[in-house]
Design brief:
Helix content: 25-40%
Distance between the termini: 28 Å
Strand content: 15-25%
Shape: globular
Largest sheet: 13 strands, mixed
Number of domains: 2
Number of strands: 13
């Protein structure tokens, strides 16, 4: 999620607004922040279809379910950009930019925000026909809402959406501040899968994986299944939830099934997305026994590898790797998918050796006014907090002991 940064007290007065023609650039509707649930689904879906960059986690059915049910994630607002139709037409305003937002104070008053397992890509939805205009309108909306900065978390650093915000800020002689950055695994799905896997893993590793698959077949014929329809996805989701809760995530208490709000969110979102082909659940079985399953979200020409669950009783056969190999072949054979985002942590030991592409992701602070000293203070505080969080994550005992997939 993105935070709307109420960084400094308004009692001391806001700095001069950037740009002499600020007021003349404003759209006339709507300037207040509306609840995220109030954004019309039709407008949201139309914007997603023409977004300049794909983000499956900002699809309406996904994000509205998170906002409605996921603990610590409810009650978000919407920062929006709307086109202004010509005065002599009957056209209604069109949504051309959207970012789900919470206040800075709300975000950092709750420890759950830093542990959010959802929305691991925060790239805003901007209309591909006018991304810079949409970015300008979003920044203006943030100013009108009383914000001093906009903090975008987990945004694609090399993407067209951030480039649009950079251009929008430059109009007012402002520049973004990078808080943190990392690179995570992604798949070039335009390549031949067998060639890609050979290049990534090498003949020796692939031979060992084939041996493990033959041993897995001793428990029954190995099959790879793809659930696509809402009914299929609902059934396969229960298998996934059970597998995830049976493993190390269940022991750590972070499995989706362990909190009613989390399970309700995904049980709502997955079949809804499946109605438009935006969600699949892939699974690997030995005979009738499921040994691994994963949720895959799709938006435009990109897939998002959301979560995986495995039966650790079969860990010696590397079921997570086996499922990922099958998923790789499945995505590379799909003419509608060009890339896949692992949405995994940087340095993930399972996915990075297989998906050798890298997607640069980072947290970026966008100042809304020139010469605002509070922005520098906020930047330093956010960077320090990120360093502490990353250190704690690396040292977490259950992370070090996580079994192989």
């Amino acid at each position: 999620m993105v935070e709307l940064g109420d960084i400094a007290s308004r009692r001391h007065g806001a700095p001069d607004r950037a740009g002499a023609a600020e007021a003349g650039r404003r759209a006339s509707f709507p300037r207040e922040l509306m609840p995220l649930a109030s954004v019309p689904c039709v407008d949201w879906n139309c914007l997603a279809a023409r977004a300049v960059e794909p983000n499956g986690y900002y699809l309406a059915d996904w994000e509205r379910a998170v906002d409605a049910f996921a603990p610590g994630r409810t009650g978000a607002s919407a920062l929006t950009a709307w086109s202004a139709p010509a005065a002599d037409t009957d056209r209604t305003p069109a949504l051309n930019g959207l970012v789900p937002v919470v206040s800075f104070r709300q975000a950092y008053g709750l420890p759950l925000v830093s542990a959010d397992p959802y929305g691991t890509l925060g790239t805003p939805l901007l209309d591909r026909h006018s991304p810079s205009d949409a970015a300008i309108s979003l920044l203006n909306h943030a100013r009108d809402a009383g914000a001093r900065a906009l903090f975008l978390r987990d945004i694609a650093l090399d993407g067209r959406a951030l480039a649009a915000f950079v251009m929008a800020l430059a109009r007012d002689d402002l520049r973004p501040r990078l808080v943190s950055a990392h690179a995570r695994a992604c798949l070039d799905a335009t390549r031949d899968a067998d060639t890609l896997l050979q290049d990534a893993l090498g003949a020796r590793k692939l031979k060992e994986l084939r041996r493990q698959r033959r041993r897995l077949a001793d428990h029954g014929p190995v099959g790879f299944d793809v659930a696509r329809t809402p009914a299929e996805v609902s059934r396969a989701l229960e298998t996934f939830l059970t597998l995830e809760a049976s493993g190390w995530k269940g022991k750590r208490g972070t499995a989706l099934l362990q909190r009613a709000g989390d399970s309700r969110f995904v049980r709502t979102a997955a079949p809804m997305l499946a109605k438009t082909g935006a969600c699949e659940i892939v699974s690997l079985r030995a005979g009738a026994t499921p040994v691994a399953a994963a949720i895959v979200v799709r938006h435009q020409n990109r897939a998002f590898y959301f979560k995986i669950g495995i039966d650790e009783a079969f860990a010696k056969f590397s079921p997570g790797v086996q499922l990922t190999l099958d998923l790789t072949r499945h995505l590379c054979a799909d003419p509608f998918i060009a890339t896949a985002d692992s949405t995994a942590d940087a340095g993930h030991t399972m996915i990075e050796p297989i998906w050798r592409g890298r997607l640069r992701i980072g947290d970026v602070l966008l100042p809304l006014y020139r010469h605002d000293p509070a922005v520098a203070i906020a930047h330093a505080a956010l960077a320090a907090r990120t360093r502490l969080r990353d250190t704690a994550r690396r040292l977490r005992p259950d992370r070090r002991r996580k079994p192989p997939l």
